[in-house]
Amino acid sequence: MLAIFVCLVFCLVLAFLLLASNVSISAEKTSSPPLLIISYDGFRWDYLNRTRTPNFDHIIKHGVYARRGLVNVFATSTLTNHWSMVTGLYPESHGIIDNHFFDPDVNKTYIPLYQNWSAVNDPRFYDTGAEPIWVTNQLQKENGRSGSVMWWGAENIVKNTRPTHHMPYNLTIESTYIIDTMVKWFTQDSGINLGLLYFSEPDHTAHQFGPDSDNVTQMIGKADELTGYLFRQLSRNDLLEDMNIIFTSDHGFASASKENLIYLDKYIDPSWYTVIHYTPVAAIMPKPGKEDIIFEKLKAASTDNHFTVYRKKDIPDRLRYRNNIRTPPIIIVADITYNFITNMSADQFKLAGNHGYDNKYEDMHPFFLAMGPSFKQGVEVETFQMVDLYPLMCRLLELQPAPNNGSLDVVSLFLQDQQNSIWTVSAYILSLAVIITLGGTFAVASVWHYCQKHKSSELGFGRTAARIHSFKDINAQYKLIPDEEAHDDGL
Ligand SMILES: [Zn+2]
């Protein structure tokens, strides 16, 4: 019995050691690759067809691609969409409803600080419960470290957390220096596992010259060159093959012109309201008692003048814009290529291109490409939702997503088959367990067999001896009774 017990303990210890080492190997195998997200501001989904873009072409061939880009969120403005990308929430849920907005609780208007980042905005504007990816990364991963270069909103403290490294918005910094800094953050001791990189072009050029201008075409080429520079720097540091990289943007673009202006002063008296953000979505804050007349006047004018007016309660569900305290009592939304102006002449209107329109317009949609060890190669889909990016990032970093509006339904098509790899690991563990169990059983059976045989052998030797010596001894051995008792039987 002791031998069997020792054998069982030995098998269990062996099984434990093998499984422990296997789990450790599996954990190492499945530790997530670092992730870099790059946003080229205002890069429309169809810009890739405009000029030679060998680096983007390389990603399409060796990575994944949304042929018609992303369906972004309304309003299709910069801050709103950058915040939806990293939180997976619609504007009515995260509260950054436009680049400027009024918060009745804070009793202030939010204005991005642009060139004055030494000033600190009220933390209540961003810390609304929405959880950006760097917060998820740093709160959940023991070694989760994040780096942000100029990513909109990353300068704010959210859930008592800021990115481990953050370079604030500064248009005077060379793009190559920005990339060098990001690569350094990934490669230094205690390096980051998540990077977010923002470039302000081709947005600025499209506002100034229009999205169809040669200037924008040149900027698309420069974005591609910058991507090539990034590849070379990552490759020199042995990072390119091991990193997942997402290339996307916040919105597309539409032309603007002095011919397509809507003069709000023609329809409503400027003394009746204040306006927070006025084109192409005007947030109207009526003065007391003026809401009804403003709405009626704008409603009557909207029929033939290329805009739509909504009371807050009537904003369509599909815009996911209504249910937030920051949504103003009335919004007016210009048709694409149209813009509102107040208190100015057409000559003062300087924009050649704009964005912010209803996200139903495809021209408002940004591009999407990605590549890396977790992505399949050469996979294309038609389009998907911008809010799906956050759960995708969480999947890539193996994080539990915070509550969000996104889904993995489409983006999981991009990913290497995790089910198979999980199954492979599980099958490996199961196979090992079966081998150990069978081996253990065989060992126990062998020992038992040996013990039984040993006992049988003892009987056999005695029997042989009995045959030689006497029947009495044989009978005694068969009955397993001591010799003394046999003698006492008188046989
Ligand atoms: Zn933008």
Describe this structure in words.
This protein is an alpha/beta fold. The protein has three domains: 2-23 and 424-488; 34-254 and 362-418, Alkaline Phosphatase, subunit A (3-Layer(aba) Sandwich), CATH 3.40.720; 258-350, Gyrase A, domain 2. It has 13 helices and 20 strands. An eight-stranded mixed β-sheet has the order 7-6-8-1-9-18-2-19, with helices on both faces. Strands 12-13-15-14 form a four-stranded antiparallel β-sheet, with helices on one face. A two-stranded parallel sheet has the order 3-20. Strand 12 and strand 13 (281-286) form a beta hairpin. The longest helix has 52 residues, at 418-469. The radius of gyration is 35 Å and the shape is globular. The protein binds zinc ion (ZN). The site of zinc ion has 6 residues, from loops. The site of zinc ion (ZN) has 6 residues, from loops.
Kindly list the characteristics that best describe this protein.
single chain; 491 residues; alpha/beta; Alkaline Phosphatase, subunit A; Gyrase A, domain 2; 3 domains; eight-stranded mixed beta sheet; four-stranded antiparallel beta sheet; 13 helices; 20 strands; 39% helix; globular; disordered C terminus; binds zinc ion
